[in-house]
Each structure stands twice: as structure tokens, then as C-alpha cells.
Amino acid sequence: MTYHHVAGRTGLLEILSWARPHNSPVERAFCQEYLDRIPGMKADAFGNRILTIGDRPRVMWSSHVDTVAARGGQQDVGIDELDIASLCKGKAGMSLGADDGAGIWIMLNMIAAGRPGLYLFHRGEEQGCLGSHWIARNTPDLLKDIDAAIAFDRAGLSDVITHQSYGRTCSDAFAARLASALNDLNPGFRYRPDDTGVYTDTNEYAGIVPECTNLSVGYHGQHGPRETLNVDHCEKLLAAMLQLDASLLVIERDPSLQDDDRWGWHETYRGQAGDLADAVAENPHLAARMLEDCGVTLDDFRIIAWEEEMNDETGYRPLMAS
């Protein structure tokens, strides 16, 4: 079986051309094509892909294979004169998938270069970090030697995340050292510790692994048809990761101590649709603007609302204007 090389911009665009919702045939085909061909790659019982390079590596690299998409399939992606990638014909229900195609591309190129580490390609992150949650619950020994879990799954250009929904997941010292190391490797970088993280796979390991963070990889407007990726930044981040001396990172946080639970919704995050509905009802104009930013038009919304009414158990059937 031949390993599928994804070097350069061509490889990045190729990955972004796959819209791959969780548990879809396209997601499975993507994993078979890009991950399962790699020598030494394994799949656990949930379908997460796992590869170890080096003798008992201390750093875990994290990305996820699913994207936000109403349907799986191929999509046209282009890059403009400013090195910004986007969908050529984006519409509601689509996204570029740089969240987390960019992270996958970085990790595949690190693997090709033989960079040491435990590489985890998670399934179901966009559905609530299903794959990482499964690992934390069922195979935590996979992480017993890991001091730092670093995800390539943050929007923007400069964040080294210290807090997620768990609370503090990464020490300030670790984040500052990693940011400084990256900035030293590329004078154009402006990485810095940031405490406004929300939720990605490394959050699930915060009670097991001392330092769990998330790095900005250059995408913006994720989860919608207007999502973009700063390809130049992504390429430069990969170049830095190929030079990074991970042994110099500072490990300070004790994972047995949840010292900052300011977010307070780690255990109640999943399934809180009612709370979201309440928030939308309280902030309708904000919700409408967010839908517009995701490419949802008024007609799209009305059609979906009508379909919901059609499926309502009350039997109500609204009249449609011709």
C-alpha cells in the first residue's frame, strides 16, 4: 500500500476538498485514503487513528478528521492572491473544513518528516469530542507517558490556549515557552498565551495529561461557507513545527488538580440544546447575524422552519405561497 503524500499547497487543497461529516462514508474513505496507508498507523475501537514515532514520546499531537458539513463529498477550493483559501462556491450547509483540515495537513507532514510524538487523529470532534472522550474513558493508558497534548485546531494566528471548558488545561509557563519558541522560529509570528479557549479534543485529556493546549493554525469563520484559511501562516507554522525542540517546553501543571473551573460547564456541555434555545431567544439579533455569517439566508431559514412544521406531531400544515 502506497503512502498518500500531501506535501505543499496542492496537498493542503486536496485535503480541504473533502467535506466529511462524522460517521459518513466520505469520512471513512478519507481515513482509508490519507491515514490508513501510513506504515504503523492503527485504529482503536472507536475509529480514532493512532501513530507513535520515537521511543516513548512525551508529546501528543492532535487533530480531528470530521468537518462541519450537511453532506459529504468533494468541493472546489481556491487560493487568492493574498494566500487565503476559501470555497469557490460556498453555500449554507458547507464549510471549507480547515477546521481541522489544516491540522491534519500539518500532522501528516510532520509524520513524513519523522518528527517524534504520539499522533492522534480523532473522530467526532465536531459532535462533542466523541473520539477523545472515548479514549479518556476507555484507553487512558495510551497517554500515560504524555506530558503535553498539543492540538492544531484553533482559529486565528496567535493563540496558545491555556483554558478550555474544563477550566485551566495548560500552565502559563508552558504556553509562554511554546509561544516564545514559535516566535523565535519565525519573527513574523505573534503567538501568545490565551485563556479564551472553548472546546477541542485536548480538553478531554486535561485530567490525565499535564499540559493540554490548542494552537492557532490560521483559519477564520469556521463551520460555515465563508470559512477561510491563511495558507501562508499554515505553511510557516508547519515549518516551525519541523524545527521545534519539544524537549525545551516547561511542564508545570498537575492534572490531578482542577485549579481553575471558571467555565463551569465541562460535564454539562453535551446535550444542552434547551440552554442554547434560551440564549437565542434572549439574543435574537445576534443569532440572526451569526446565521448570516454562516451563509444562511432568510429563504433558507423559512424553508427549514416550514419543514420542521411539516414534521410536527400536531399535524399543522402551513400554506405555501406560490
Which sequence of SSEs, written as H and E, runs from N to C?
Answer: HEHEEEEEEHEHEEEEHEEEEHHHH
Q: State the major sheet.
A: 6 strands, mixed
User: Can you say what the CATH homologous superfamily of the largest domain is?
Assistant: Zn peptidases
Name of the CATH architecture of the largest domain: 3-Layer(aba) Sandwich
Number of helices: 9
Lateral strand order in the biggest sheet: 2-3-8-4-9-14
What percentage of residues falls in helices of 4 or more residues?
Answer: 25-40%
* CATH class term of the largest domain: Alpha Beta
How much strand content do the residues show? Answer: 15-25%
Rg, Å, rounded: 20 Å
Unreliable stretches covering 5 or more consecutive residues: 263-273, 313-322
Number of strands: 16
Distance between the termini: 56 Å
What's the structural domain tally?
2
Structural class: alpha/beta
- What is the 3D form? globular
Would you tell me which CATH topology of the largest domain applies? Answer: Aminopeptidase
In round numbers, the mean pLDDT is 88
